[in-house]
Amino acid sequence: MAAHTSFSLLRNYTTTGRIAATVRTSLGLSAYPSSINFLTANRSRRYLCRASATHDEEAAAKAAAINADNGAPTIFDKIISKEIPSTIVYEDDKVLAFKDINPHAPVHVLVIPKFRDGLTQLGKAEQRHGEILGQLLYAARIVAEKEGILEGFRVVINNGPSACQSVYHLHLHVLGGRQMQWPPG
Ligand code: 5GP
């Protein structure tokens, strides 16, 4: 009976680590190797998911970079004009901070200049941008305080396709609310 159950599970779910573990256990094999198999299979699946997500992000970043400097508005212009709704964390006349739609941490807020003024990416910064760059950093600190992560947070700027920048309107990622790893990927 146990063998029959195992066969059905194997037939239906042969590709999953979870069921591979169930099959081994039901055949009377030691639970310890089963759990190792279970973990190994799931870990490799998680790795594959991460690898595939990374691949998607890299492809999206490469595609976005093609039109980086054509002056076209980005999705952030629609967020600034409130045409696209966002959860605003902080706003003044120069800076807007809103929650990232695809957060990578319990707190993940984007801080952007309201006027792009050529700042499609940090690599385009000129001396005249010094003031707004300072304001963006200070806004990141305000966001960290508002979000309750002042004692530990990370500020990230992805610049260009090799850093996976996907929106060509300068933005700071403010991340926190969990232990950050170092070095970053
Ligand atoms: P990048 O990859 O360029 O460094 O970061 C762009 C960020 O913008 C990404 O983390 C992405 O999740 C975020 N994003 C893209 N579209 C939207 C949107 O429509 N709303 C919000 N809130 N975030 C967005």
Automatic annotation (TrEMBL):
The active site is at H171 (tele-amp-histidine intermediate). InterPro entries: Histidine_triad_CS, Histidine_triad_HIT, HIT-like, HIT-like_sf. It comes from the Eukaryota. A motif (Histidine triad motif) lies at residues 169-173. One of its GO terms (molecular function) is adenylylsulfatase activity. Residues 75-185 form the HIT domain. This is Histidine triad nucleotide-binding protein 1.
